Amino acid sequence: MPGAAGAPRPGGTAATPGARGAPAAPPPATSPRWSEQVPDSGLIAVLERPPGRGTSDHERLERIAAFERAISWLQAQQEVEIAGYVTAAERAAVPDPRRPGSGPPGPFDTPAHASRSATAEIQLILHLTGAAVLARLERARLLHQDPTLAPTAALARTGLLTAPKTRKILEGTVGLDPAQAARLQATVLPKAATQTTGQLGAAIRRFLVSLADSGLPVRRRERATRTRGVTVQPDADGMAVLRAFLPAAAATGIYAVLDETARHRPCGDGADVRTMDQRRADALTDLVLRPTGHASEGTAATADAAPPADVPGVAPTPSGIPQPPHPTISVRINVTVPLDTLLGADEAPAELAGHGPIPAADARALAFAPGTVWYRLITDPVSGRVLHRDTTRYRPDAALAEFVRAQHPTCTHPGCRVPAHRCDLDHVVPHDPAGGTGPTRSDNLHPLCRSHHLLKHSPGWQVRLLPDGSTRWTTPSGHVHVAEPTPVGPRGAAGAGRRGPGVLALLRDPGLADRLAAGVADAPF
């Protein structure tokens, strides 16, 4: 009926007051607009107090937006601090021109040495990898110390640019001259705060396409090409991700070779049930590992109709695949397997150096693969620390080196995962035959990758090897960081009181391990 309560009005909708979906009433004039405030300690103090029972939806959403802005603001402030900390360290390594011959005021003789030490301090305090810290440092310096990017930096320091948006703008300015970079920022910054990261990226691409600069693509490609590389990322269930960042033509060519190889690989008499993705993955393994005399498990199974490979993922190269010319390439992969796991009495995981735990079945397959070299370790049943390494097959010096690498499977700098066999063996206390200090013993040796070996000998850094095998690093700033050794054997109550049949068999017959490795003995159960 016209004029009845709840009837729709022209241009409006009918709604019951208080019903879900009803048009919201305009916020009261006194409702706080937290998201419009530049973050500071006062705003943080307000936000850290939980909202009261009567807080309106409008205010709660304002709080959520204010938190987001405060996070962006804090990230920008941290970037300023990171860039300033490293820059100050570098400046302290430069002699004061007003005092000729006085040398640098700081402990480092070059800015590069000072930068390496300062960057390592940031890495340890933030528990990041070296590559991650260097990337953050590069972005921080570019944003907050390059005057060309001052407009972006100023907006970031108000909290209106999230870190992903800031990275988009920095990436967009690569290869631009100062005038072009200024135009880009003038074009995209006015709307950047209210756009999604994808919308901002599209706006940046539109601007770059509009530039009449034929040299820009070349400059950007040259810079990108300098960042090419191959990395491996551990994954779950005994898998890993191998990532290659390459020029597009090279990557496309490699994929084409893998695809062609996968389509035409000999498959023997049986049907190949692998998917094309699996066949391409196997083709990559075949082409790379063929110089080592191995092929992928999938190819081995189909080429000769052979049983599954002994080694997880790889097998001896089948006769259907051309063998490489001699000499072949020899590679080293260290896997530490608990004895009970090796003999099948337990399913405790093994440790693949530089990767982490792998399933027991994969460890046993690797251990009994042709060409595998065994050595026996005795570990502390409580801590899992290596106490002794069998030296029967090694010269004393080589045996000591291998024992130290068995104790410390990776570089002993906190957070570093470089496998020990790719590291230098460093004397914790410097070796000094004349003074009788720094003995060449296992309690004074540890593996360090080349980068952290150089860092250890930088001014202000102190390293101590603790009795439990941990390595204590003291930085020039006085912070202490401890790297605990990776347990090799079972530890805790389970390891302290258990001696399964495999362990007892080896205790009774010390030569059993060698006979098992030679394939002339069976597991004793």
TrEMBL record:
Disordered: annotated segments: 1-58, 93-115
InterPro entries per the UniProt record, alphabetical: DUF222, HNH_nuc
Top-rank taxon, per record: Bacteria
Cross-referenced Gene3D superfamilies: 1.10.30.50
Compositionally skewed regions (Low complexity) per UniProt: 1-23
Organism in which the protein naturally occurs: Pseudonocardia autotrophica (Amycolata autotrophica)
UniProt name for this protein: DUF222 domain-containing protein
Domain spans labelled DUF222: 116-406
Pfam families hit by this protein: DUF222
